[in-house]
Design goal:
about 100 residues; mainly alpha; elongated
Length: about 100
């Protein structure tokens, strides 16, 4: 029987565990891919939405395990056509990172 991954109090503790542990001995069946955002966000948007729409957005984001602002940003990124191809490369690189990166609990 495989070991259960311990809970960590900090990212540093999780990184130390991953660096030193033999992960083949641990049950990773519950691991989920996560997405990291590295691009700086300097622009802000303020908008009014109907309450039920905002609640639906928050519920959908919660179901995916991400903040609702990030969920809205992802929807916008995927909805806009790319003039330079940057969005397609950005979305593709995020999908690759998402598929390769397990979430450690």
């Amino acid at each position: 029987m495989k070991k259960k991954i311990p809970n960590f109090r900090s990212d540093k503790a999780a990184e130390a565990f991953v660096d030193t542990a033999d992960l083949t001995q641990y049950n990773l069946a519950g691991a989920r891919p996560v997405r990291f955002e590295f691009e700086k966000k300097e622009a802000r948007v303020n908008m009014r939405l109907p309450g039920p729409l905002l609640e639906a957005v928050k519920d959908s984001a919660k179901a995916r395990g991400i903040p609702y602002q990030r969920f809205i940003r992802e929807i916008l990124e995927h909805a806009l056509p790319s003039r330079t191809g940057k969005r397609n490369r950005l979305a593709q690189s995020r999908r690759i990172k998402k598929e390769r990166t397990p979430k450690v609990r």
